[in-house]
Amino acid sequence: LKKTIGWWRENIEKLRAMKRLVLKYLSAPPSSTASERLFSSAGAICSELRNRLAPENASKLIFVHENRALL
Predict the structure, then answer these.
(1) How far is CA 48 from CA 5, 52, 53, 69, in A?
(2) 50 phi, psi to nearest 5 deg
(3) Cβ 41 vs Cβ 65: under 8 Å
(4) 38-70 in b/e burial notation, b at 16+ Cβ within 10 A?
(5) Per-residue pLDDT tens listing for the chain (71 residues)
(6) DSSP state letters, 6-32
(7) How far apart (Å, rounded) are the C-alpha atoms in residues 14 and 10?
(8) Within a 10 A sphere around the Cβ of 25, how many other Cβ atoms?
(9) Has this prediction a pTM greater than 0.70?
(10) Which of 17, 28, 29, 19 is nearest to 9 (CA)?
């Protein structure tokens, strides 16, 4: 990790256009709220009552549930 951070510090001026992308996608999220929300949704969808739900369909339902604001 220290080598990676050091490399970026040395090369940030050469790759200035990528700085925002690197900070956005290569940094750890500040909290686990999003993952906790996802596990909660998955728990509600993959319940004992839906024990015959195929994994592919469960995945699709979770995706739709988590992105319903965009629909």
Answers:
(1) 45, 9, 10, 27
(2) -115, 40
(3) yes
(4) eeeebeebbeeeeeeeeeeeeeebbeeeeeeee
(5) 678 888 888 888 888 888 888 778 777 777 788 888 889 999 999 988 888 999 999 999 999 999 998 87
(6) HHHHHHTTTTGGGHHHHHHHSSPPS-S
(7) 9
(8) 8
(9) no
(10) 19
